[in-house]
Design a protein that fits this description.
By secondary structure, this protein is mainly α. The protein is built from 4 helices and no strands. Helix 1 (16-56) packs antiparallel against helix 2 (59-110). It starts with 15 loop residues before the first helix and ends with a helix.
């Protein structure tokens, strides 16, 4: 279940370790891609144009050109790093935020609170998982609600049984009726419980 306006993003680090690992991985991939592309460009350039450039430029001048190119690539990589980090944090928050909300929701379910559904922000990742968790929670809520009403009927049957036992003289037909009601409620509860595999 999703809702756009109810939960606005106020904190971008909700799972700091996960998000920093995610951003670090993105940075590593960008740097490795840049290094590999630079190597391929240099290698190709030196193979095809190395002899021609060596004849045109003196050795020292050619190395200075290569060093300027290296410096510019490094400068652009460093300049792009903050943008990559901010994009990584924003993108990871679309995963880490829902994970954090799902963990909190599951903890409240474990404590027996099924009153509030799991709600994610619009455009967050893991929406299908959240919908699945909400379906499970609704199913458990329905089952618990039915079992609560079954227990109410058991309590009523026990009360009728107690009244039949305390009546003077003991009314055997009332006692049999109360026992049969209790047996019926007991078998209904057993059928409900048997559908769960534990």
């Amino acid at each position: 279940m999703q809702e756009g306006a109810k939960y606005k993003r106020t904190q971008y680090f909700v799972a700091k370790k996960f998000q920093l690992k995610y951003v670090g991985l993105i940075l590593l991939l960008v740097f490795l891609t840049t290094i590999m592309c630079s190597y391929v460009i240099y290698y190709t350039m030196m193979l095809t144009m190395g002899d021609k450039l060596a004849n045109v430029y003196p050795q020292g001048r050619l190395m200075a050109i290569v060093n300027v190119m290296n410096f510019r690539i490094l400068f652009v990589m460093l300049l792009m790093s903050p943008i990559i980090v901010m994009t990584g944090i924003y993108a990871s928050h679309k995963i880490a935020g829902p994970i954090y909300r799902i963990e909190r929701f599951l903890a409240s379910m474990a404590d027996g609170d099924f009153s509030v559904p799991l709600i994610l922000r619009k455009n967050d990742e893991l929406a299908a998982l959240a919908d699945g968790i909400n379906r499970v929670a609704d199913s458990v809520k329905t089952t618990l609600s039915k079992e609560k009403s079954d227990l109410s009927r058991v309590s009523m049957s026990l009360k009728n049984l107690k009244n039949a036992c305390e009546a003077r003289p003991i009314d055997n037909s009332a006692l049999d009726k109360a026992l049969n009601e209790l047996n019926g409620e007991n078998s209904v509860l057993h059928q409900e419980i048997e559908k769960y595999k534990i």
